[in-house]
Each structure stands twice: as C-alpha cells, then as structure tokens.
Design a protein that fits this description.
The two termini are about 25 Å apart. The chain is mainly alpha-helical. The longest helix has about 40 residues.
Length: about 425
C-alpha cells in the first residue's frame, strides 16, 4: 500500500518526503490547486454577500444596539478555541477531513442565518459560520503551503488569494442588490446554496481524496513541543501584528464604515456595496501581485508598504464625503490590505518549522480571530462614545504601531524548505 501511495503521489507531482510540488511554471500547478481556488471563490463570495448590510440588519433586529457589535464579532468568537488544536490535528491526520468538516459547519451557519428572526439566532448562525470557515481557511492555506516550495510559495498563495477574493469583489454589490430584491433572508439562502456547492465539490474531489493520508513524517509534535516553538519572537510578533490588523479590518470595514456611510452620510446599501466591492477589487489586485513582489523584494518590505497605504486611506475617510471619493479610497485601502494579507502569511510560513506548520498557522489565526472578535466591539464603542472620525484615527494609529513592531523585530527564517 505504501508503495502504491508513493506512486500515486509521484504521478500527481508530489514528492512523498516533502509533500512539495516542484514547479517550472503556472501550467504545472496541480489540479488540486485549481479545485481549491474554485471552492475558495464560492465560500468567500457566499460570505461577502451580506457585507454591505450585516451591521444594518443587526441594528434592525436589536434597536438597542447592544448586540450589533457581537453579531459581527460572533463570527470570530467561536474560532478562538479551535484554531491551534485544529492546526495540530491537521498536521497529524492531513488536511482533507477538517477542510470538509469546516465547509459543512459553514453550511449550518448559513442555514441558521436564513432563520434569523431575532438577533440571537443571527449571532448563533454567525458563530457556526465562523467556526466552519476557521477550519476551512486554515486547512486550505496549510494545503497550499504544503504544495509549494518557499521560493514559489508567495506567488502561488498570492494568485490563490486574488482569485479567491474575487468572490468578495462580486459578492458585496450582488448581495446589496439581492437584499433589495429578495430581502436579507433571501441573500442568506443564496449564500447557503453556494456553500453547499463547495461542499459537494470538496467531497467528490479525487485530487483531494488522493492526498487524504499525506502528512509530513516529522509531524509527530505534541502540544507541548508545538508551544515550544512560540519562543520564536518572529512568530509571536507576526501573530500580534495580525491581531491588530484584524481589529482594524473588522472594526472599521465590517462595522463602523457601514454605519457611518448609512447613518451619517445617508448612503444607500447599494452604494455601500459598491464601496466594499471596490475595496475587495484593490485587495484582489494586491494579492495577485504581492506574492511576486514578496518573493523578489522580501516579505517585510511589502507588508510595511501595505500598512502605510492603509493608514493613508483611513485618514482620508475623515476628509471625504462623496461616493466617488469613497470608491477611490476604498480601492486603495483594499490594495494596501491585500499587500499585507498574503505577505504576512508567507512570512509566517518561512518562520515556521514544517513539522509544526499547521500548529503555528493555528496560533497565528487564533490571534487573527481575537482581533476579529475585539474589533467590532472596541471600535463601535469608540464610534458611539466619541465619533466615527475618532474610530478612523484610532485605526490609523494602530497601523503605525504595526509598522513599528515589524521594523523593530529581527525576523530570521528557520527553514528554507
């Protein structure tokens, strides 16, 4: 059986020892890569369909406003305690099973949101949705990292993220239009159909099934051994940076910005959807190019450039008022965020030992989830207590903190796999 498995892996471009694809060009990418891109596109589009109206819907279900922030952040609350264990388990049993379970839980979350006639049901649905996408995105990213060598990993992950997040570019305006035609509940049903399609493709994928038992023979790390790697300050610093990054992203671009545009500037949901869509377009463009740029100029340089662009656009939000200006600022802010998103994950993969890469990715994503959970609550508090502009300036400050943290930490890769 072992000989047969090696033959299967070799025929598909795998090296059974390192589980890496030896690439000479884009055409040599394995079929599994493109299947996962298609699944990711559908999952992200389904998730993005309600991006333009989620906090508005939560406020309608809870006029007191007490649970508005929680309705957004519940997506991340359920993920906090699963990322690291899931990463360690994934290192030991392979990526496929947890990936499929994740998409299944995402479908349950989408179904619960279709039944959301109260803010409590919406919160529970968002929690299941978040739990499912945590398992999916962590295993999907780990699988792509497994497939590619370090020198080509940035561009492979960048292309993957750019195509995947095209779903967000399409989803935001389409969701806003569907909300007008079908109502908010109808949008959740559309998202459910897309997630179920992704589930069917993942379960039936022969390419994914053929790697179900692939695991790094060195991945025998205990939880204690995995935690021991956290003495690497580079891994800790990158994780803290992603905490602050997600705090801004979810606090501003999933909560405060929509309320500011709708309640203060009186923008309709359709216009908000366009702004978010242009932001995602910038993210897609940056994700596509950032992998190549990071491979050539270094991960830190590209991440710093992304934070600088992001800070400038956040400051601009306090001085502009027209739809055209917000479309432009949203696009450039998304471009900055896209530079950070891909390069930061690739930087983490360079720092993480292959035998514990899933665990390190789980640790990183736990900090990301903490930021995603805290962001809507913290920045909504600033928005309500002071003003929308105060929330934007707090986000600008956080971006500069991230830049200083990255500059002052010496990051030395531990592996050149």
């Amino acid at each position: 059986m072992r000989t047969r498995n090696r033959a299967i892996y070799a025929s598909k471009g795998f090296d059974a020892g390192t589980l890496r694809v030896r690439l000479t060009g884009f055409r040599s990418y394995p079929r599994l890569y493109f299947e996962m891109v298609l699944v990711g596109f559908a999952v992200v589009m389904g998730l993005s369909l309600m991006a333009a109206f989620l906090p508005i819907l939560a406020e309608e279900l809870d006029p007191s406003g007490v649970f508005v922030g929680l309705a957004v952040s519940a997506f991340f609350l359920s993920r906090l305690f699963i990322e690291v264990p899931a990463g360690i388990i994934s290192d030991r049993i392979g990526r496929r099973k947890l990936l499929i379970v994740g998409i299944g839980l995402t479908a349950i979350g989408a179904f619960l949101c279709t039944q959301a006639n109260s803010v409590y049901v919406l919160i529970i649905g968002r929690a299941f949705w978040g739990l499912g996408t945590a398992l999916y995105f962590m295993n999907n990213a780990a699988l792509i990292i497994d497939l590619f060598e370090s020198k080509t990993r940035g561009r492979a992950l960048g292309i993957f993220n750019s195509i995947e997040f095209l779903g967000g570019f399409v989803g935001a305006p389409v969701g806003a239009l569907l909300a007008g035609a079908l109502g908010h509940t109808g949008v959740f049903y559309v998202a459910l159909v897309m997630v179920l399609g992704s589930f069917a493709l993942s379960v039936s994928s022969r390419s994914l099934r053929s790697v179900r038992n692939i695991r790094d023979p060195r991945a025998k790390q205990s939880i204690g051994q995995t935690i021991g790697y956290l003495r690497n300050w580079g891994i800790v610093s990158v994780s803290v940076i992603t905490f602050f990054r997600m705090l801004v992203m979810q606090g501003i671009f999933a909560t405060v910005l929509q309320l500011y545009l709708n309640k203060e500037l009186l923008f309709p949901e359709a216009h908000i959807g366009l702004i978010i869509s242009l932001r995602v377009a910038g993210h897609v463009l940056a994700a596509f190019s950032s992998g190549f740029l990071a491979d050539r100029f270094g991960r830190k340089t590209i991440v710093l450039a992304g934070f600088l662009i992001d800070a400038g656009c956040l400051a601009a939000f306090t001085a502009i008022f027209s739809l055209e200006a917000f479309l432009a600022a949203g696009f450039f802010e998304g471009f900055g965020e896209g530079l950070v998103f891909t390069s930061l994950i690739v930087l983490l993969s360079d720092l993480s030992p292959p035998s514990a890469r899933g665990g390190m990715l789980g640790f990183y994503r736990t900090f990301m989830d903490l930021g995603g959970f805290a962001g809507p609550i913290a920045l909504l508090f600033v928005y309500v207590s002071w003003s929308s502009h105060a929330a934007f300036w707090v986000a600008v400050f956080i971006n500069f903190v991230n830049m200083l943290l990255l500059i002052t930490v010496r990051i030395k890769p531990v592996s050149n796999d």
